[in-house]
## 1
Amino acid sequence: MIGITAGVDEKYERCQIPLAYIDAVRRAGGVPLLIPPTGEGFPPELFDGLLLTGGVDLDPAYYREEPRPGLGAICPDRDGTEIELVRVALERGTPLLAICRGVQVLNVAAGGDLYQDLSSRRGALKHYQDAPGWHASHGVAIERDSLLWRILRTEAARVNSFHHQSVRLLGAGLVATAYSPDGVVEALEGRRGFVLGVQWHPERMWPRCQEFEPLFGALVAAAGGGEI
Ligand code: MN
């Protein structure tokens, strides 16, 4: 059972989640369980692994900053749910894969912080591509022998990019294991267990690019008690 965090469509007052996440979990052999953005946590005994999905910006109050002009939309109920989910998952050792916004939530829940808007960072590449989701717009260098490297078996990959924020100071117990050429953190992981976050969207690259399918396979395997 893989808990998948859902977002809010504020305009239509609906809970929403791109099907690509659900499909990716199913292809990997997991059972998707959607977790609604209620502002509260969710019973951790109901799922074996957690998938934190992409979405709007995290309220900078969670990392002790006031909102700056480059900050985008925020969703307070989603923030409350996801921060609590990560806190409990790290405590319990629940396998966790965090995508895009998810890697930012993971870092902040562990005490780290974010660049509120990458355009304020000198020399930053364009990290919000206009190309389709399957297109890999920039490169990443992956640390050898990291969890990410053990799953993908490569030190160089090309990824899509749909973010305007990124990880700044790392949260406690987390290490950065992939960077884009401009030095932006593109992957984070825990020192123990299965805790992995990527700044790109592997689920959106399927089926044109299948290089990142093993990420979902590894989450489901870890949720089933397997060693990676
Ligand atoms: Mn990027």
## 2
Amino acid sequence: MKLILLGAPGAGKGTVAKMLTELDGSVQISTGDILRGAVKAGTDLGKEAKGYMDAGDLVPDALIMGIMGERLLEKDCEKGFLLDGFPRTIPQAEELKVLLEKIGVTLDMAVSLDVPRDVILDRLTTRRTCENSDCQAIYNTKSNPTKVEGICDKCGSKTIQRDDETEEAISNRLETYQEKTAPLVGFYEGEGMLLSVNATSSDAVVKAIQDGLAK
Ligand code: AMP
């Protein structure tokens, strides 16, 4: 499958993407994971992106398009891909459209995960992420804790609260989402490829996406 996952931070894009990859071998492409990996590795990209990320601001479109222009050409994308956290602005969506046309790839759908604000706030403050950049498994201290506190079940690395999960950065990320990313819902509706999903459990979201793909 070739999908875009839209939704506010904490809407469950990463969790749902990881579940969908198990279904047909499509790869999850998370620009946030790629950027956090670059920050940890101390690359030029990471150095440039870190300040924006810690403040909860978006990284400039040109940097993101540079990453994605290369990533979408990699061989593993042939089986399908789940775009998690990209595109995040109208210019990114427009450039993605041109890029996909150029490489002859058609998207199945853009899925918008609609989750109430109080659920999102609660999820973001209780979310923990594996610090291993090759793993980045997601946990929640309330609803999905690790078996051993602070240790990733999958790879044994430490789980951490992300630098952009302070109250201030979270509120900035949600504002940025409303201003820059929420308009993408209208964009993809106009393209005739939007599926809006209201469910909050990830199993129900996956089911709704499978039903949408089957139509
Ligand atoms: P995420 O893990 O998707 O919440 O992304 C974490 C942070 O990475 C965001 O708050 C942005 O600073 C940056 N980021 C991720 N994806 C994008 C994107 N498509 N455009 C701009 N910035 C992004």
## 3
Amino acid sequence: MKVLILPDAQAAIQRAADIIARTVIAKPDAVLGLATGGTMLPLYKALAQRHRDEGLSFAKTTSFNLDEYIGLAPDHPCSYHHYMQEAFFAHVDIDPARAHLPKGDAPDPQAASLDYEALIEAAGGIDLQLLGIGQNGHIGFNEPTASLGSRTRIKTLTDSTRRANQRYFASFEETPRYAITTGVATILSSRKCLLVATGEDKAEAVANMVEGPVSAACPASALQFHARATIILDEAAASALKLTDYYENVHPQGQDSIFD
Ligand code: F6R
């Protein structure tokens, strides 16, 4: 794991934007795995700004989002389809026909999950998977105890995840219970992973992911098995790590190093 610690959230977001931009410039038809959530909002803003100011183009990319709530139509204001449209797709030149999310409103969500996994495979797999992390250590909606060998499927959300996401809905009761999410093994099949975490409320989950044992109790810890996983943190999200001196020594100011 490459652990890059940046002084604050803004610097962490710019560092993540650099890596995504570099990927897309090197491979204009890259397949991107995308995430939603509060952490990603400034990142999508930064990418949209680079599109506007520097001509960073997503025209040939294909994207697959990690997850979508079951029961929400794409035009529902709380759906991840809607989030992606508002936060990113509407501000860049990505081809809507190649911007994929799981179909949360499919009549058969289980079949839709299998189709989604097949679609990722047909696209040649994901070049760069962008990830956030839940306070409980989830990636995508792979909640604690999710199989580390899982593929795209339906997951029941924990109450803690529903509480964290309740801010987007009218009440806890209205916050969906189920989602389609790509699995831990789907995520690990990506050629590169880029996880971004900011803020002190992520510190414990980050420490479990990076320095804890690999365990389904913290699904993000499965990234320890990934040969090309980069973790971008601000100082607050890194505050519970024990080996901070080492990470800062290898990657001063979160910069690349020849030897990781
Ligand atoms: C969203 C997703 C989740 C979030 C995580 C962090 O597509 O897959 O794993 O990345 O819940 O969310 P925020 O950034 O809102 O704390």
